[in-house]
Automatic annotation (TrEMBL):
TM spans (from-to): 69-89, 109-142, 149-169, 211-233, 254-279, 299-322, 334-355, 367-385
Organism: Erythrobacter westpacificensis
Name listed for the protein in its UniProt record: DUF418 domain-containing protein
InterPro entries recorded: Bact_Transport_Assoc, DUF418
PANTHER family for the chain: INNER MEMBRANE PROTEIN
Keywords from the UniProt entry: Membrane, Transmembrane, Transmembrane helix
Amino acid sequence: MVNHASGAAPVTATERLGELDVLRGFALLGVLLANVLEAAYPPWLATEAQLAALPTSDLDSTVFFLEQWLVYGKANTIFATLFGIGFWVQLERLRARGGDFERIYVRRLSILLALGAFHAIFIWVWDILHLYALAGFALFFMRKLSARAFLVLGLLLAILGEPLISLMVDTVGLPDYAGPYFSDTAIVARQTASQAGDYLALLEIFTKITFFAWIGQGVIVGWALYALGRFLLGAFIARKGWIRRATELRKSYILTLLVALPVGLGGQYIVASVNTGAMNTPGDLEWVLTLLHEVSKPILSLAYGCALILVFHSAARPLVVLFGPVGRMALTNYVSQSFFIGYLLFGIGPGRALAGYAGTAHLAVQSLYFFAFQIVFSVVWLRLFNYGPLEYLWRWATYEQRPRLVRSSAAEAQPA
């Protein structure tokens, strides 16, 4: 259905960019692995002594190192950059139709903020939807800046935003009210509440962590700048048409990949080695490590993106197309991952409460199984319907009209 008066309508399957869906699906795999393994690691839901006592501790250490090296920070960088790309693509399409972009986009972000706040409070404390909504409002008010401003501000915020906020907090010397919540005693208390299936006790604990650490220590501001920087870079990429012109720019993609992959891998290898204790660094060089991390992280993410797009536009395309359906249902799949993580790590309802009792290797395998299920579910669902369940509701609320859910032709099922 199209609102002819405003020129606004949800994006149809034939209007989608297939590369973006593949990138989103790939990023969601990384987000799942990072969320599971980071949550099940000290100082959140397991103590170092518990993990060291597991018979798989050596393998677990290797898996965690690989996650730090290849996944952590890279998946959310791709995901956030795609948000910025999507922002600009939607802006251009609504302008072409004569749609009221401002009203539609503010409503869209407001809905996302409400959903993210609910998700963070009651389901998954590490939610990023509310954060994306907040950074999205900032991007909205910056939309009239030049492409060069997008690039410069995006790079500055993506690299320096979070470290500068951390430095400011340290300089001001805010009281560390969150510190006691990360002690071994507090971790065991969370495990005890989890194993007892005490949802309200866990809710109280994580609400306090959110208030004292996420908000009270200014972490939310640092991460909002982190996200905004990536949004701006994504919008810059979209303005340049680098996704739509991927086949035309194939040589540039190859050159970028050949440079970015070794640089990103090398920088992140050093960072992961230091963070996991495999390599030591003098205390007075900590700022160098931070800078290396913030620079090499988006560089490696860029390499991943170039590689996926090159494969998408090659004879090897079948290797990546299955990420596409997952990416088309990114909101549904992201939220469903939260329930899976809760099932895996907590003892609520049918939950297995494996935090502290299963190592990262086992949890990584379980996560891969679940992602395989998400692929199958997404493929089957999109053979029958035009949108994922949450995507459908989000579009309905955003455009104030009900889009057609049931697919009526094979063409509607395939992204452009």
